[in-house]
Amino acid sequence: MLKVPEHQVAGRQAIDGKLGPLIDNSSHFYKPLQDDDERGTGELTFYHSFSSNTRIPHHIRRFFPVFYGTQLLKASDGSGLRPHLVLQDITSDHLNPSILDIKIGSRTWYLEASNDYIQNCFHRDKTTTTVSLGFRLCGLQIYNESSFWKPERKLVRSFTADNVRSVLRMFVSSNVGPEPDFCFADSVYGGCDGILLKTWFEDQTMYHFCSCLVLLLFDKESFLKGKTPFAEVKLIDFAHVVDGNSVIDHNFLGGLCSFIKFVSQVLADSKGSTMED
Amino acid sequence: MLKVPEHQVAGRQAIDGKLGPLIDNSSHFYKPLQDDDERGTGELTFYHSFSSNTRIPHHIRRFFPVFYGTQLLKASDGSGLRPHLVLQDITSDHLNPSILDIKIGSRTWYLEASNDYIQNCFHRDKTTTTVSLGFRLCGLQIYNESSFWKPERKLVRSFTADNVRSVLRMFVSSNVGPEPDFCFADSVYGGCDGILLKTWFEDQTMYHFCSCLVLLLFDKESFLKGKTPFAEVKLIDFAHVVDGNSVIDHNFLGGLCSFIKFVSQVLADSKGSTMED
């Protein structure tokens, strides 16, 4: 049985008769192909290229959802059969995951795009934290005391740098409010995933990941029960990946480094707050 | 006696009655203050802040020209006395230096600028290599066999990624033409200046260096005579430095990493070509 993903925090949703992704009970995530994909320029093209690319190191491949091919399915908007990407459902092993979707890069447009697309992105980039921070939050849910805080898209888009800092603190705290306890900061932010990704982006010149998201997942309940994995880092949304043309993805890399710095500041604050205790 | 700098390859020049920088015989470079500076928002403000900033590591300070203060001088455009920044003349110890001026970053505008300024930069960034490579060449001169190759500004602006690669090869070769010998690649590009700068930019959140240049100087004659320094790396042009607001300069960092990758590719090619010999 297909259903609407419960823990989707950004992107098009399969609600109110609209076209969006679906999941099943076997950890599959079905993402409807856009018309672009059918012309061979979008996400499907990327997954085909990436999954057969022997130059992707094993320790980098794990940051990407597993790709199982495509399948014809009844689309969620009632328009009949449509090809869907069949991907790994990242949230399937988690009951109440906290999730951040972060769009990386200080520029979400690319030279190959249409003028209208560029102008729209340019405006959105200037009016969110994309230009100033090199990334923006696109959606989030934070689980605390048996409920989720899941702010509306419009609110998330209005976030300032200080709001982003607060969210990053709240994400790794056992409480919600002005005095975060940073309880899980070291366990969630203290790993080496950021460094591994950064090192790869300093070198790889195959793909430019325009408008791509980093999904951070943290499952507090699993962590407290000693279950692994309690945290995940995945890159998602590859509809605007373009050829790297022997140049590194300096836009993604710069944004990623800025995000890493934000996270490391939260980590440093958490250590400061522990030492004062 | 003040004179027009012989080895200036980009920026406003003090020729044809225009306002531009001057040098003396004591290694000083006099740069006329723009009206912005007099309002306290431009290059002078940066030099005051930077020179008194105790958080700049010693090994980073050496990448910046020494700042000696300001001085009232007769402006080169005949408009009378005008305050000038007094800076270190980077080229003064070199008879025939090869020079590259590289504007770092995939975005040369910044949010605090006027709409007109942003639109002009946005257009220039898209039509040069700024967006695609994360940097662009702004000017250059390459010394070879008793003469300089110093292409006109218009030609430099039209450079593609391949042109940039050719220039980076030619810069470290003893010959000019389609088959560079990469003779000096290891000596010029094999050092750790790029890594030192990159490491600092991954961490520093004090300044955002918009529209700033990296000047690379290589003095072949000094090198062949065993004289040091035969190469210099300096950051110049700080008219558009803005407050970092606790965020790293992800725009400069991304562009710098892309430039480092280009240079490392030339270095790898040079080793390949040596092994084939």
From TrEMBL, chains A, B:
Biological processes, Gene Ontology terms: inositol phosphate biosynthetic process
PANTHER family documented for this protein: INOSITOL POLYPHOSPHATE KINASE (PTHR12400), INOSITOL POLYPHOSPHATE MULTIKINASE (PTHR12400:SF51)
Similarity-based family: Belongs to the inositol phosphokinase (IPK) family.
Lineage top rank: taxon: Eukaryota
Designated name of the protein: Inositol polyphosphate multikinase
Organism: Gossypium mustelinum
The enzyme's E.C. designation: 2.7.1.140, 2.7.1.151
GO molecular function annotation: ATP binding; inositol-1,3,4,6-tetrakisphosphate 5-kinase activity; inositol-1,4,5-trisphosphate 3-kinase activity
Catalytic reaction equation(s): 1D-myo-inositol 1,4,5-trisphosphate + 2 ATP = 1D-myo-inositol 1,3,4,5,6-pentakisphosphate + 2 ADP + 2 H(+); 1D-myo-inositol 1,3,4,6-tetrakisphosphate + ATP = 1D-myo-inositol 1,3,4,5,6-pentakisphosphate + ADP + H(+)
UniProt keywords, alphabetically: ATP-binding, Kinase, Nucleotide-binding, Transferase
Primary enzyme class: transferase
Lineage summary: Eukaryota, Viridiplantae, Streptophyta, Embryophyta, Tracheophyta
Cellular component GO terms, alphabetical: cytoplasm; nucleus
Keyword Zinc annotated: no
A family per Pfam: IPK
Record InterPro entries: IPK, IPK_sf
Protein role: Inositol phosphate kinase with a broad substrate specificity.
